[in-house]
Amino acid sequence: xxxxxxxxxxxxxxxxxxxxxxxxxxxxxxxxxxxxxxxxxxxxxxxxxxxxxxxxxxxxxxxxxxxxxxxxxxxxxxxxxxxxxxxxxxxxxxxxxxxxxxxxxxxxxxxxxxxxxxxxxxxxxxxx
Length: 128
Prior knowledge:
The chain is mainly alpha-helical and about 130 residues long. It has two domains: about 1-40; about 40-128, no CATH class. About 75% of the residues lie in helices and about 0% in strands. The protein is built from five helices and no strands. It has helices at about 5-35, 50-60, 65-75, 85-90, 95-125. About 10% of the residues are buried. The model has no long low-confidence stretch (mean pLDDT about 80).
């Protein structure tokens, strides 16, 4: 005979299993994104201070326009483009191309994590 305690215990087990699966999925996703993020960077004028490069390039007056152009016109056709190819294709400096891809990557990652969090919130409010 199944009791209320058995039923609650089964529900708790299912909830815990779902939580573990979601956590594994999230960790797998983050690991995959972290692997994609690593680039070998080597171009003229870059001496290894990435933070200075990023801050300087973001102050370029048309930086946001370039970033929007790459997001809308280049990435849909070439989602895995390297910064070297992006530089050649668009005629911008390799450093600018690197920072644009870096920022677009981080924007995408933040958006996907936000979507995962929203799914968690939606799931928390659903009743079976």
